[in-house]
Task: inverse folding
């Protein structure tokens, strides 16, 4: 029986992961759950269904509400960001699935690595912020990092059985989001509702906006650099509207290996949880005779400035990716709150990068401090009316 601690239990990845776990009751079980705490009723229901040993909620007040909603004996209840760290580090689990959105996953993910637990990563921001530190800790502890993002899971599968020195390029695919064909001049007036209409995937609001700006591909370039130990220029983004080819690897002899499948996050989740074995996933199967044409395009870095910014911070290194991620999170939240226009997301990120001095990244504590300072600066920019709708 493989015991799973799930960070981000109430998000789209977390709920799909719990469905996967429930489908294999003889092989998978829930050891711990963590969430922000905005939906206590849902968390209580998940506790009743999965009987975790412990639950951690970022919102301290939500812990008290959960305690009232659950009869004794109840799981151990942990509160605040430190509670998530304790959950990842101390609850007896074979694998930790990190599916929290944003920087909230940084410290508990590192805690799980330092505790020697296998890590299934659906939280790309942790590797964006602290890729060098995370991968070094994983190497030192011989902890496997198993990607859950559909693109990185695809790359992981395409690399299986091959020598990493033979890799020529990683071809990271993306749908292009809802504005792939929208003229650049029209982006300044798009609405929140427009940006949340993803053509393929059903995801949380932050990730969906990242897809609309193509920042998700920028973050994934950085993530791929650290996960697969490749040079930044070896990672190429390819727009693929059909979302059938989830990514590809080109080898030095010109051979290109691709991973294809239907758009179902249950597939990469189950692969990470049962690796190196495979299990059947109930649901539809890919029928290429009904798919029709598969098309591929180069992204437009002029229209999607976030791609350009992500490339720049990867080249700069040090704390620059920390600033990029923090600025993006605050800017996306401001856009979702209708405080700034869509195109101001990239503008605010660029301002934050220009305002923060470069420095080498040497510790998780420094990463947390830079993240907090970058957030304060971008909040100040937004309060000052920069990027206002």
Result:
């Amino acid at each position: 029986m493989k015991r799973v601690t799930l960070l981000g239990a109430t998000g789209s990845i977390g709920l799909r992961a719990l469905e996967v776990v429930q489908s294999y009751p003889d092989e998978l079980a829930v050891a711990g759950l963590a969430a922000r705490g905005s939906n206590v009723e849902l968390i209580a229901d998940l506790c009743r269904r999965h009987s975790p040993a412990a639950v951690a909620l970022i919102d301290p007040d939500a812990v008290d509400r959960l305690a009232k909603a659950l009869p004794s004996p109840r799981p151990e209840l942990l509160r605040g960001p430190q509670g998530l760290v304790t959950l990842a580090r101390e609850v007896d689990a074979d694998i930790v699935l990190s599916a929290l959105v944003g920087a909230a996953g940084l410290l508990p993910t590192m805690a799980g690595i330092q505790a020697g637990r296998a890590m299934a990563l659906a939280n790309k921001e942790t590797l964006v912020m602290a890729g060098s530190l995370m991968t070094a800790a994983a190497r030192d502890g011989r902890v496997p990092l198993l990607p859950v993002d559909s693109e990185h899971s695809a790359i992981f599968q395409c690399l299986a059985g091959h020598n990493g020195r033979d890799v020529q390029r990683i071809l990271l695919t993306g749908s292009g989001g809802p504005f792939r064909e929208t003229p650049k001049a029209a982006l300044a007036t798009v609405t929140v509702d427009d940006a949340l209409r993803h053509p393929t995937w059903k995801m949380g609001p932050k990730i969906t906006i990242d897809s609309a700006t193509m920042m998700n591909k920028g973050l994934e370039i950085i993530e791929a650099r650290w996960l697969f130990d490749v040079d930044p220029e070896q990672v190429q983004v390819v727009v693929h509207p059909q979302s059938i080819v989830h990514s590809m690897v080109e080898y030095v002899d010109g051979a290109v290996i691709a991973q294809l499948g239907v758009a179902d996050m249950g597939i990469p989740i189950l692969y990470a949880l049962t690796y190196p074995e495979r299990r059947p996933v109930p649901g539809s199967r890919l029928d290429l005779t009904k798919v029709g044409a598969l098309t591929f395009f180069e992204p437009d870095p002029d229209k999607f400035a976030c791609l350009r910014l992500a490339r720049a911070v990867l080249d700069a290194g040090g704390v620059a990716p920390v600033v990029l991620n923090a600025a993006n999170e605050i800017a996306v939240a401001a856009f979702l709150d209708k405080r700034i226009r869509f195109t101001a997301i990239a503008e605010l990120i660029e301002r934050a990068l220009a305002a923060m001095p470069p420095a080498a990244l040497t510790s998780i504590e420094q990463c947390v401090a830079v993240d907090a300072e970058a957030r304060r600066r971008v909040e100040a920019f937004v309060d000052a009316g920069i990027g206002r709708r």
